[in-house]
Write a structure and sequence with these properties.
With 347 residues, the protein is an alpha+beta fold. It has three domains: 4-99 and 195-217, no CATH class; 105-179, no CATH class; 226-341, no CATH class. Helices cover 58% and strands 6% of the residues. The protein has helices at 4-9, 14-23, 36-52, 62-79, 82-100, 105-116, 138-145, 169-189, 199-217, 222-233, 237-247, 254-266, 271-278, 286-296, 311-316, 333-341, and strands spanning 120-127, 130-137, 160-161, 164-167. It has a four-stranded antiparallel β-sheet. Strand 1 and strand 2 (130-137) form a beta hairpin. The N and C termini lie far apart (52 Å). Residues 217-228 have low confidence and may be disordered. The chain binds iron/sulfur cluster (SF4). Residues 236-238, 311, 314, 320, 323, 327, 333, 336 line the site of iron/sulfur cluster.
Length: 347
């Protein structure tokens, strides 16, 4: 059973949609002064998406948070702009993920099955340091996981028993966030069923279109983005998995943290870039992390610059995940990276 606060946290849920419907608010009524706050927050949601790539969570006025979601979707849809739509969908998905990954298993289960209609069940399975708390029918899993690029999500790399894929809690949250993103893309890309939106809505749309123009021009050149992306694509599967888990806010054991940090530093990432990745971990402590990363970088302590462990060591720590064909020809994650950059991953 979801509370009113839950509906504000998860305005994409079927329960929140029914609540909005039951209150019978029409688009025309958005012009009235009593709904000004809803319009304001809706606009803010889109602006945050464009400016910060993340929509905040505001739970001081629950109704405003609930109603502003469909209004923001309407504005994005009326803008007819693909970049606004994709940034908004991405930012709302991130907002949802930040809440879902902290959610109780029962609520996650209820949202996953009620809103997405997935066949999800509670489970209890430990493999190495990973705790699988859920299982999902493989067809439902693939509907979302096919959109993920990391080998971590490939069906052959998953624990699959009797047609059910086992998931850690943050993985189920990540799947739900991705499903929200896809739904929003679909919804906001569809032509709005509205001939003449009220004046305040039109003004809001004009404002986000104007904002998008300035934000888009500040984007890094596509060539730079492509270079960053291709360098990450050359990461070995074990490092891709660790990076993905860190960015998903998963608790990582010490050896996993050391491997990820030493790998990133070894390929030329800065201490700040490593800290940014570790910032997502649930127990992040800036001072301690800075100390450890500086230590690994050889800036303090014994002044030894550490490299990541070799594949054999990573295997003994259960950190060798989903090795691919290139893995068979190397003995160290850094060798994998160098070869993959030269184009050896596909051979
Ligand atoms: S074989 Fe080595 S590089 Fe490949 S996934 Fe395993 S540990 Fe990583």
């Amino acid at each position: 059973m979801l509370t009113l606060e839950d509906l504000a946290k998860y305005p994409f849920s079927v329960e929140a949609q029914s609540y909005v419907k039951s209150r019978g608010l029409t688009v025309e009524e958005l012009s009235s002064p009593e709904h000004q706050e809803v319009l304001k927050r809706a606009l803010e949601r889109v602006e945050e998406a464009l400016n910060k790539a993340l929509v905040s969570v505001k739970l001081d006025r629950l109704d405003v948070e609930i109603f502003s979601y469909p209004v923001a979707v309407l504005m994005v849809s009326l803008s007819g702009d693909k970049i606004i739509t994709s940034r908004f969908a991405e930012a709302e998905a991130k907002r949802a993920f930040s809440l879902l990954r902290e959610e109780s298993p029962d609520k996650l289960l209820s949202l996953a099955s009620g809103t997405f209609n997935w066949d999800v069940k509670r489970a209890r399975l430990n493999v190495g340091y990973r705790i699988y708390e859920f299982s999902v029918r493989w067809e439902d899993y693939l509907k979302v996981a096919l959109g993920f690029k990391s080998p971590h999500w490939k069906l052959i790399n998953r624990v699959l028993v009797s047609g059910r894929v086992y998931l850690q809690r943050h993985e189920l949250a990540r799947m739900m966030a991705e499903a929200i993103r896809e739904r929003l893309l679909e919804k906001a890309s569809a032509a709005p069923q509205l001939s003449e939106p009220p004046q305040p809505v039109r003004e809001g749309v004009e404002r986000i279109l104007e904002l998008a123009k300035t934000r888009v021009s500040k984007k890094p050149l596509p060539i730079v983005e492509a270079a960053v992306k291709s360098s990450e694509e050359a990461y070995p599967p074990c490092i891709k998995t660790l990076l993905e888990e860190a960015l998903a806010g998963k608790q990582l054991p010490h050896m996993a943290r050391f491997t990820l940090a030493s790998f990133m530093l070894s390929i030329g990432k800065s201490i700040e870039e490593v800290i940014e990745v570790f910032r997502r971990l649930p127990d992040f402590d800036e001072r301690k992390t800075l100390y450890h990363v500086k230590h690994i970088a050889g800036e303090i302590g014994a002044k030894t610059r550490y490299t990541p462990p070799n594949c054999e060591t990573l295997r003994t720590f259960n950190l060798c995940v989903a090795p691919d064909s290139l893995c068979q020809r190397i003995k160290h994650p850094l060798s994998y990276y160098k070869r993959a950059l030269r184009g050896g991953a596909s051979s």
